[in-house]
Amino acid sequence: MSRTRTLPDTEIYTQVLTALETHGEKSVSFGNLSRATGLAPATLAQRYGSVDGMLRAALTSEWARLTEALETAVLDTSKGAQGLLKTLPCPSAAVLASSLRDPELRAQAADWRTRIEALLSARRGGGPKGAEAAALIFAAWQGRQMWEAAGGKSFRLAEVIKRLG
């Protein structure tokens, strides 16, 4: 059976992120991605230059997807803090960890977080108290999302928001 000759970047990125999230960074290789996508390892190497280049491209695409979802959520100002967070996808722990090692990706992650916290703060009345509540809500949301993958829900986000007043 012949190999696939072309595949859109988005499909390759999905496979890269799946490998990253299920088996870690070491599993992101041209050989593994060749088996997952049907593309020749040489085709992947030619397209991305290196495994790091392929991983970086997939992570950059993922931050663009998360930012686009945030842009869509910004348009609906009728939702409170919890409603906003329910509409947003959350980066996986593997995506976040891999992004923090690259200065540009770290900046994208920080910008995404800052923008979400600003939206949460506005929904909490703004000012220093709103900003502090927003940071706590964001941290609780991220922590819950990341640990949920490891086996369960330890608290309800609505309870955290309610206790913050």
Could you explain the architecture of this structure?
The protein contains 9 helices and no strands. It has 165 residues and is mainly alpha-helical. Helix 1 crosses helix 4, helix 2 crosses helix 3 and helix 4 runs parallel beside helix 7. It is elongated, with a radius of gyration of 18 Å. The model has no long low-confidence stretch (mean pLDDT 89).
Task: List the SSEs and their pairings.
Elements: H1 9-23, H2 30-37, H3 41-48, H4 51-74, H5 81-87, H6 93-99, H7 103-123, H8 127-148, H9 157-163
Helix pairs in contact: 1-2, 1-4, 2-3, 3-4, 4-7, 7-8
Could you give the count of β-strands?
Answer: 0
Terminal CA distance reads: 62 Å
The total of helices stands at: 9
The Cα radius of gyration reads 18 Å
Q: What is the percentage of strand-forming residues?
A: under 5%
Assembly status: single chain
